[in-house]
Amino acid sequence: MYAFTIERPASAADAAKLAAGGARPLAGGQTLLASMKLRLADPGQLVDLGGIADLTGIKKEGDTVVIGAMTRHLAVANSAEVQAAIPALADLAAHIGDRQVRAMGTLGGSVANNDPSACYPSAVLALGATVITTQREIAADDFFTGMFSTALEEGELITAIRFPIPKRAAYLKFKQAASRFALVGVFVAQFDSGVRVAVTGAATSVFRHADLEAALNKSFTPEAAAAVKIDATDLNADIHASAAYRANLISVQTQRAVAKALG
């Protein structure tokens, strides 16, 4: 690990100023610290967000649930508000990584990092959430821009995420056994306005699947999902799975997610 300094601001505004000056934000540290230990990252200066009280917490606001960026996975999983309003989101959080990861990892850190196989981005995208930052509000459809890439600008920090409450929803993932990341994960959410389907682990970034959404809008059933042919052309292929295998997993996990959402 390279030498570095660390700042511990008391407010999001102060943290944003430090980040704008070149300091690297530290949320749960589940990716950044591991990279630093391997000398793959040399931030020089860190800004620890852990002491900023305004960045934590969960509350229901009308037909949405607002979760602070520094809220730990374990807190989301155990939240009575989330379990009642969006049980699929609580279930997703309960199966991220292992106990240590869930105890330290944060919602905002995961979403800002946008790992291609992370679980939270699929929930943000499928639920049509709004990412609230120190500068603005960003719709989920505009937030994720590519592998480890988002619409966040230099010095812009996530403060909270606002999740609309769906009629029904479910998340299913096929885990990569060693990392517990999603080899393929599918989050399905049904609203009065229509169905949204987000896929993680299968491509360079989380994405919505238009054909599955169209089919499920006509008939919200596993059979409707099964009838959709999944194109493997732009899907990942690596030592863990071929593109064709991931395409099949998208179909299977969607079918299972719809069945789970229907109860």
UniProtKB/TrEMBL annotation:
Keywords, ordered alphabetically: FAD, Flavoprotein, Oxidoreductase
Annotated FAD-binding PCMH-type domain residues: 1-168
GO molecular function: FAD binding; oxidoreductase activity
Natural source organism: Pseudorhodoferax soli
Pfam families: FAD_binding_5 (PF00941)
Name this protein carries in UniProt: Carbon-monoxide dehydrogenase medium subunit
Lineage: Bacteria, Pseudomonadati, Pseudomonadota, Betaproteobacteria, Burkholderiales
